[in-house]
Amino acid sequence: MMIFSRSSLLVCGATLAFGASPVLAQESAEQDGGMAGMHQRHGQAEGRMQGGGMSGGPMLSGISADEKEALLQGKGLGAGMIAMSNGYPGPKHVLEMGDELGLTAEQKEEIGTLFAERKASFVEMGRELVDKDAELTAMFASGSVDTGDVEKLSREIGQLQGELRAGHLNAHVLTWEALTDAQREKLASMRGMHHGEGERMQTRQHQRGGAGTTSGT
């Protein structure tokens, strides 16, 4: 079973990093990592299904080891990508850019509290989601499956996935609301600079490719 192939946690869309900031670039990379391995995980799941289950050996969990680790650490697995791609940064990275954005002490306290509370909530929900998936996996591995129990657990897993996605997205929204207009304009400016540099890099790569130049890296 591939839980995350249907999950809204893996939102398809363009990934965005703000300006030259390595902190927000890291946030973008983490968000992108949620979808970058989607096709790879799908292939791995197909291999598990072909080699496991009733046809031979126990069936592995629908959550990969990397996804499990991320969920237990309260990470979003791409859940905040919609917000990021539309200019809504996460609380952690706004805090780390506090000096550059000119955050006040009150803003730092507000956003810091938001981050700590949401992080604790995401860890708790992630642990519950991992446990529910393990329970569903064990049911099938036992060879004794009840359709009612499958429906119940699947609905509970789906609800947790939805709550995680909403929680991560709203953390971005609340962070945005805590910023002043000037700070938002600063973020937008940094976004524009990053996009411009990305387009120039793509143009240079295209020109080199057109000239027959190949790269060894």
Globular, elongated, flat, extended or rod-shaped: what is the shape? Answer: elongated
Give the beta-strand count: 0
Distance between the termini: 37 Å
Count of domain modules? 1
Q: Give the strand content.
A: under 5%
Low-pLDDT segments, ≥5 res: 1-26, 28-59, 210-217
Radius of gyration: 21 Å
**What is the share of helical residues?**
55-70%
Largest sheet entry = none
What is the helix tally?
A: 9
Mean pLDDT: 74
H-E order: HHHHHHHHH
How would you classify the helix and strand content by structural class?
A: mainly alpha
List keywords for this structure.
217 residues, elongated, disordered N terminus
Structure description:
This protein is mainly alpha-helical. The protein has one domain. About 70% of the residues lie in helices and about 0% in strands. The protein has helices at about 20-35, 40-50, 65-70, 80-85, 90-95, 100, 105-140, 145-175, 180-210. α3 packs across α7 (about 105-140) and α7 packs antiparallel against α8 (about 145-175). The longest helix has about 40 residues, at about 105-140. It is elongated. It starts with about 20 loop residues before the first helix and ends in a 7-residue tail after the last helix. The model is unreliable at about 1-25, about 30-60 and about 210-215 (pLDDT under 50).
